[in-house]
Amino acid sequence: MRVAISERSFSRSSTSQGLFDASPLCRVGSLAVLSLKGNNLVGGIPEEIANCKRLTHLYLGGNRFSGQLPDALWRLNNLKRVDVSDNNFTGPLPNLAQSSGMTTFFAQNNNFTGELPQFDFANFEQFNISNNDFTGQIPDGGGRFQENSFLGNPGLCGSPLPNSCPPPQPAKKKQKNVSFEKILIYLGYMILGLIVLLFSVYKIARRSRKKADGVDGGKDRRADASSSKTNGASSEPKTSDNRSEYSITSIESGMNTSSLVVLTNSPEMKDLKFEDLLRAPAELLGRGKQGSLYRVVLSNGLVLVVKRIKDSGIPSEDFKNRMQKVDRAKHPNVLPPVAFYCSKQEKLLAYEYQPNGSLFNLLHGTQNALVFDWGSRLSVAATIAEALAFMHSVLREDGIAHGNLKATNILLDKDMGPCISEYGLMVVESQDYSQISDIRSNPSAPHDAFKDDVYGLGLMLLELLTGNMVQNNGYDLAKWVHSVVREEWTGEVFDSVLISQGADEERMVRLLQVALQCTNPSPAERPSSSQAVALIGSIKD
To answer: From the DSSP assignment, how many helices (H) and strands (E) are in the chain?
Structure first.
């Protein structure tokens, strides 16, 4: 067993087990950081924890603690970061609102119950209480975090969760006595209203029948005249009952159905028409700031994913040229578009459907990183960096960067190989990264969209290393990692799953250094994508 203790911190290795005795630890008056992550500790948190007056960081995740969190814990006014995730804690949370300086709170994968305290979400950088049994409405400000921070609590409602809270029930009034005479009067009104309704329905049905007879009589007279016109089917799609939401919105938007451009020579796609997309069953996968995503099943069984974009900021002709150039670039780990449509109002882009979801789902899904080990994560990092560098080298003269590189746009093919999707789809403005640290970018420097892609690559590396989600354009995650590293607590940022699997910490630290370079607030100080490939490749080899 390896134990390290100083006036500032205490940590215990993952081989420890038994009860947690806080008394001797809290005698160290300057103890600021206490980490017992990933052990087999049982029992509860003792009340003596209140004696650790200067404690700022408390990491108890990945043990077998049980019982309720003691109220004494929240009398520690200096607490900034608390992790009690992956334990067996029960009961309600103490009044966390008293710890006004807290910036991180992880309590996922426990058995907590009751309503959430009134958190001051404005101070939090990271927050997760998923997979418990909390009930009631999420306090104001909870919408600052994504719904993944609250999932797995069937009784919770309100933003950012999709289920809204029911309106408060009005107080029940005392039931007044209703006389028999009033009941007869109300019943008479109901019968009279029913008679009027039936009479109205009869008159409408009779009028419709007469009109239908007149139309049928005229059909034969118009048949010959109709056959002398165009002998093809109408270019307007038929509005059948099984038409999808995607089909309905497309028709209503007034699209020109003859403007679909097919980019592949696949036999299944060569005769694809825009009408085929309109008539195909479609499933809405999600909506975002940049548009909506649909899963479309063609009549021949081919499954496509269609991205519908509004207000992309790219003129139609430029969009057409971009998509054709992206298609010609061709890298095995960049998902090529198979067809696209563009008009002044909106644009569509179709890809082959990838059955295994995204890198985001693999990292943060319900069955996340247990099978996503260090070797697999490093391989994904190297593959995506290489694919990005290739596209940059081919399309740099045309100024076509990805524009929105993130874990949700890294899709997994049938062999679980990572592929970059939506390359070149968006043109984005320069980002302000000054929130991350005291470093300030040079406002007079020209905007380099390719360095924005490198920043997105760096965020993806941080996501792979920490297991944390990217929120608020990545500012929260990048700022947190930069601050922890500055405090020389680098080991605290790594995903506990990787640590429990015995991952190579030296190589993780080296990859973390690459991620920090890529997320430097100053674009000029970031490496190019090809330099990032060389750095990651040296770690992998």
So the answer is: 12, 22
